[in-house]
Write a structure and sequence with these properties.
Layout: H1 3-26, E1 45-51, H2 57-65, E2 69-76, H3 79-88, E3 94-97, E4 110-115, H4 125-137, E5 139-150, H5 156-159, E6 162-163, E7 175-180, E8 186-191, H6 195-205, E9 208-215, E10 223-229
Parallel strand pairs: 1-2, 1-4, 2-3, 4-5
Antiparallel strand pairs: 5-10, 6-7, 7-8, 9-10
Helix pairs in contact: 1-3, 4-6
Length: about 230
């Protein structure tokens, strides 16, 4: 994918979240069931990097469900969603306004790096692989990378929201524009990560795969997860 298209798609998604932050926050309060898969692997004290933290709901989930002492850092490019995260998380949480594709990541090391609900917004296969590699590099020895890919193209309800791709933008297989129908109307760029690409992302991480599985949604198939570990 060419740089011009990548910049256009990043700008489109930034505008999407500026427009829909309120409605998006209202529909993103509950934890995803798939997150529970990481709980048995967490150490007593855990430094967490939540990449694309949105309103901080994964941090809230860890605070409620994990037996670990959690030191939490959340990154997101949406100031509106970060404000909602600040209101919901303990004062000790570190929340940073960062564009994961343009700004440097915190050095770490982290015991858990999470990437949920964001990978489908990353334009370009090479860019997605690079992001996974960079997140893996922030892990402490024995640390976990836990990421998900949204399987929207498998469901008719989301296929009905696909709109025509602009003729002046390049595209890779699996690239779509979806409309948003709750409150303000808006468009977002979404990429469908199929099983082959998901396996390639796991390989790009250089980490050991603990498990890959599907979970969430009415069918328990909405997201495909991988939980990976950096060797000691």
């Amino acid at each position: 994918m060419d740089d011009r298209t990548i910049e256009r798609l990043i700008a489109l998604n930034r505008a999407f979240y500026e427009t829909t932050a309120g409605a998006f926050d209202q529909t993103r309060g509950a934890p995803w069931p798939g997150w529970r898969a990481a709980l048995p692997y967490l150490p007593p004290v855990i430094h967490v990097l939540d990449a694309g933290c949105g309103n901080g709901r994964f941090g809230r989930f860890l605070a409620r469900e994990s037996a670990s002492e959690v030191v939490y850092t959340g990154l997101d490019s949406s100031p509106a969603l970060l404000e909602r995260a600040r209101a919901a998380l303990p004062p000790s949480a570190i929340l940073l306004e960062r564009d994961l594709l343009r700004d440097p990541l915190p050095d770490g090391p982290f015991d858990l790096v999470a990437l949920f609900g964001l990978l489908h917004h990353v334009p370009g296969e090479a860019t997605r692989c690079q992001l996974i590699r960079e997140l893996a590099e922030r892990l402490a020895p024995g640390g976990l990378l836990f990421f998900s890919a949204w399987r929207f193209a498998e469901f008719e309800r989301y296929r009905r929201r696909i709109v025509p791709w602009p003729a002046d933008l390049s595209a890779e297989p699996g690239d779509y524009l979806l409309d948003w129908r709750r409150g303000e109307r808006a468009l977002r760029y979404c990429h469908f990560v199929d099983e082959t690409e998901h396996a390639a992302l796991v390989a790009a991480s250089g980490l050991r795969e603990i498990t890959t599985f599907c979970a969430d949604g009415e069918s328990d198939q909405s997201n495909r997860y991988s939980l990976l570990r950096r060797e000691l």
